[in-house]
Thioredoxin reductase
Amino acid sequence: MSEITTRDTVILGSGCSGLTAAIYAGRSNLKPLVLEGHEPGGQLSITTLVENFPGWPEGIQGPELIENMKKQATRFGAELRMAHLNSIDLSKHPYELTVGKEVIHTRTLIIASGASARWLNLPSEQALIGYGVSSCATCDGFFASGKEIAVIGGGDSAMEEALFLTRFASKVTLINRTERFRASQIMLERAMAHPQIKFISNTTVEEVLGVEEKDVKGLRLKNRVSGEESTLPVSFMFLGIGHIPNAHAFKGILDLDDDGYILTKDNVFVTHEGKVIPGVYACGDIQDRRYRQAITAAGSGCMAALEVEKYLEEHGR
Ligand code: NDP
């Protein structure tokens, strides 16, 4: 295995939080190494128009926003590398990361590996992401104005998305694969009482129609009890079936909550068995199951980088 000299900081993830951390760390002359991971650019890179990121009055395409952040980070000396972590050892300092055949030592670490939306994983769904298939109602709801749409899921996320989307869509059909709802009673009742929301239970989506047109035209559905198939004409499908935090590598190393999100103290400090691990910070969706916005991810990325600076300064760098 080859080895390189000790880094001041390594950032895991190149979404909004990781790149904001890289801009700040770069401007502090820390020459951050950003390991882009398996979803370079994070969730913004699979969105279309982002209209709520401050500073872009006409909106900006998600991939363009990420490209701009990358350029900004590299301008200040960040090194972006298409690689992901094999293993990590936080028991000794400098911390040791294994990336492919390389061992990297670093004084500080920023974990910004994000959370991935859970998808149905149908080929037609994957082909239409950004063309009427979305996992983010806050980002894409506006584009569904006046249209009939579907929301998939039976948990609080699905209820919240369905309720939020009634502001735009003329009709929301919520499709749950069973007749049991995971959602809290209050959210479920609120959604059920809404005149614009219709519920379909015991039903799965077999295909998203419109791949050739590159525009969602409807859903082919199957009732799991009767086996009967039907077509639901909708212009949008929003997934509300949960997120998966990309924190598998930290199981047993850091404190995670029951769903695998990294638990943080004072916004970005990570812990193991309740004790803060010095010089290691988590930011963005990997530690945020509540807000999950580009701007909040960017904000916590900034906080993590400022803590890195403070830590290095306190340790004589
Ligand atoms: P949940 O795990 O609670 O619910 C996921 C839902 O998606 C379930 O109905 C599940 O169905 C369904 N699902 C999962 N995979 C598939 C699939 N492949 N095909 C079809 N359906 C699928 O996730 P949420 O994101 O809703 O919530 C996560 C946590 O966040 C919860 O604790 C929730 O309370 C909280 N939350 C709170 C909010 C609030 O209070 N405002 C808002 C959003 C989330 P099945 O039951 O059959 O597995």
